[in-house]
Amino acid sequence: MRLLVTGVSGFVGGALGRHLRDACGHEVTGTSRRAPRPGATDHFIAADLADHQLPELKGPFDAIVHAAALASPWARPEAFQRNNVVATSNVIALARRLGVPQLVFISSSSVFYRPGDQLGITEATPCDGEPVNAYAATKRQAEALVRASGLPFVILRPRAVYGAGDTVLFPRILRAARFGVLPRLARPDGSPAIGDVISIDNLVRFIATALARRVTGDINLTDGQPVDVYAFLGDVLEKLGLPPPYLTVPAGVAMGIAGGMEAVSRTLLAWREPPLTRFGVAVLSQSKTFDITRARTLLGEPEVPTSRAVERFVEWQKREWK
């Protein structure tokens, strides 16, 4: 297939471009503001997708995979709006102009999140209530644009993507661990937080299968192996020779501290990301699990076990630190 992949300078888009070229034999045209990840594209066009004057892209393309986004727990609201909503609107307009027969939108599991534990989330679970942060809010808005586009589409919602090339999840955790400031957040009942994750290895395979089978609708994506959050982190830290969390803090106290840090960031620090955010506290202290029956039915089983994916990530991270 001839494919257009957005966000090829990023973690997901870059890994996806490489997989589509190397494992699937597709021809990939990539676009992003910065240079693409090595091996991610056959053809590259530098572009800011939030700019209404997008460069001319010549089709035909068999599909567009829209993986570009501002994926961060903290930034100015207008930055999320520009990069996640305006950019998606422009990609939809581009798809219409080029007559692209399939739009694959990489969304986020955060569209479902509300305070507290959520177990067995399915595609039918309502995405209602106040969004947990600006990222989740703009992903909901972008999903609504895709649904209203009139294009054949599939919305894929990965949960906590990790692996070689990660720029979002583990960098913040490893940085805190290296400085000895990664806390262990205690839940009120003392039970562990359980969460789903997905390796980049499984994610790119799922996306490639969605393209090949031209599936439609909404699909939640995970490794299919929920983990004890701190056991999962502890395993990674031990393999990397980093200290485990040593300071135990009640989750409620940490949530209050994070809220204060966010207020300082908004008012005094020009929205610089604080060391602790309420979203980060929720990830470490609230259980979020997903029923991926629909993914298994339409796309097949996750191919790479979590244990093997962690080994691959650790191997890559050690090379990066050399």
Structure commentary:
- The chain is α/β, with parallel strands linked by helices and 322 residues long.
- It has one domain (2-317): NAD(P)-binding Rossmann-like Domain (Rossmann fold), CATH 3.40.50.
- Helices cover 41% and strands 18% of the residues.
- The protein has helices spanning 11-22, 77-98, 134-147, 169-178, 200-213, 229-239, 251-268, 278-285, 293-299, 306-321; strands at 2-6, 27-32, 43-46, 63-66, 103-106, 118-121, 153-158, 161-162, 183-186, 194-195, 198-199, 217-221, 227-228, 247-250, 288-290.
- Strand 1, helix 1 (11-22) and strand 2 form a beta-alpha-beta unit.
Describe how the helices and strands are arranged.
Elements (H helix, E strand, L loop, with lengths): L1 E5 L4 H12 L4 E6 L10 E4 L16 E4 L10 H22 L4 E4 L11 E4 L12 H14 L5 E6 L2 E2 L6 H10 L4 E4 L7 E2 L2 E2 H14 L3 E5 L5 E2 H11 L7 E4 H18 L9 H8 L2 E3 L2 H7 L6 H16 L1
Parallel strand pairs: 1-2, 1-4, 2-3, 4-5, 5-7, 6-15, 7-12, 8-11, 9-14
Antiparallel strand pairs: 10-13
